[in-house]
# Entry
Amino acid sequence: MELPRHGRSRLSDVAKLAGVSLGSASRALNNPSSVRPPTLEAVRKAAEQLSYVPDGNARSLVLRRSNTIGAVMPTLNNPVYADFLHFLQQGLSEAGYSLICSAHEYDQSVETLLVERLLQRGVDGLVLVGTDHDEALLSRLGLAGIPHLFTWSTDERSRGACVGFSNRRAMQKLTRHLIELGHREIAVLSGAQTHNERARARLAGIVDVMALHGLDLPPENVITCRFDIEAGRKGLREALALPRAPTAIMCTTDMLAAGALSEAIHLGLTVPADISITGFDDIAYAQMLSPPLTTIHVSAREMGLRSSEAIIRAIHGDPHEGAELGAELVVRGSTGPVRGKQQS
Amino acid sequence: MELPRHGRSRLSDVAKLAGVSLGSASRALNNPSSVRPPTLEAVRKAAEQLSYVPDGNARSLVLRRSNTIGAVMPTLNNPVYADFLHFLQQGLSEAGYSLICSAHEYDQSVETLLVERLLQRGVDGLVLVGTDHDEALLSRLGLAGIPHLFTWSTDERSRGACVGFSNRRAMQKLTRHLIELGHREIAVLSGAQTHNERARARLAGIVDVMALHGLDLPPENVITCRFDIEAGRKGLREALALPRAPTAIMCTTDMLAAGALSEAIHLGLTVPADISITGFDDIAYAQMLSPPLTTIHVSAREMGLRSSEAIIRAIHGDPHEGAELGAELVVRGSTGPVRGKQQS
DNA sequence: TTGTACGCGTTATCAC
DNA sequence: GTGATAACGCGTACAA
# Structure
């Protein structure tokens, strides 16, 4: 009696112990109704006894399907992406899929490499953030016919299904709110625009509305920051040093806004009396800052769940054009009328 | 000339195009120095031309190694776990590993099921949170000889390597701080204790120090909450309704503390003059609340990176007993002396 | 150095 | 219903 060499027992061991053939054992486990009750019973008992666990790799090899989805995010620890990921995983897990996740930290060449790696692993589908990706990568995905989904954005969409929202229109709403409060001098703390259509779309939304009111946004008023709280602090100091002092600071992310807000307070300013500050995302902590942050609410939870459905349908060959989600203005305490001006 | 059926080209296609055998092609790609330069060149060109991507499943099958690590977290969106996950992924990715992550939402039976699924997938190693797990699961892991790592806690450790810290000692420090400020009536907002040795250890740390000062913690002063901000709000209201009004609220998590703090402010209390509030974790937003939160600082980043190293070493058969990390008291504005009492 | 042949663990296709 | 057997795509002894 030869023992299995790697501790793990194989289907053939189960079959042998149950006194049936390999084929019957396989069928008993995968399609119980296609086998006689006594056979089923014997196989189940043997499997239990050997604590048999099917080998997913072998199965994937022959089935051409791994029940695995890959996700490539900018980062995993930004609260909005963490939320998204959590619910994406929940949705996928319920459907029997596992999620392989990775982060490119806003480096497109890293993203391409990570996707490459996921393709090797044989993921059944791919979830990406944004619509701006390496061109070669996109055509590879198309050629290989591997189902994929773009999320967080419907801006600058060129092809493929998206589950996201219009960052541009969302930012327009927020800008309109500031304009109505009388703000004319606006500075923007933005993430880098390269390879990031969300950053571009958000900025474009601001420019749109300002232009509509005959205002322009001088280039020096757009301050490029890294995506963390500290960068927000630094950005605010830069904004205050601008030749024409801004009455409002628009941050393209709540994390940046959190940093900017705390730095403003730290410098002795009163928000919003001295200066208004806005965010984007409405992370859970936005409402707990003081003053609570005026921002754009995005439902990362819904996006995650919808994305899990969408990618699964795509895998099943179900044509699915994605979904356009909402992103609404949430007015809180960090914005107010310009000092000495009336609300228009 | 038969075309590959699934769009994807196989190694045999590469070999054919390069005019060499399967073996040579394989060697050229995996062990370039074991093949003559012209052969190498030909194979590389052919692979490039066919945009050949090795099939990870087939490779894993024969190599008995998937270059994949599984992680099962409580949730992916709690900021501390999100941070941990991010840096765990970074560390693993650098070493060529992919990370499959999932969340059990504090349900141990779900955790067991998720681990089961990961084992089927053939992960090379497993990263778990905490030391309290299903007994059957642990013995399975031991029997199967699959490398695994416990994180976030060295409390109640029974076996296996940990990368974590003593939740109990950390909470002792925090409690000592409150006692020194004169607090005697303390209420605790805690997560459920079942299947969670971190929650137990944190509570034990409080009880330890109180006992040392001849104080006891009545059962009704321990309020069990879910792990989210809203639960913190609700918990604070319960705490205020206690027969003996607490002068300090200790929350076992920053998220709970954030909720409790905001509710206290909302109810018109002044923190810390009317009541002191503490957290645990020191998430990025803890210092931005008002008042900023007194808490225990835990470096999720370091824990993530160290964990990636530890699990990889474990896979390589390198004996590695894990690491005990620090967790230090950070005193900020949310704690102060009891009204009318001197600091002892 | 190179080619051949076998094995990895599973599912699917056939005859029986 | 069941049992042999051929795939799935790759790595690697072994022989040449």
Summary: Residues 292 and 333 of chain B are 5 Å apart (CA to CA).
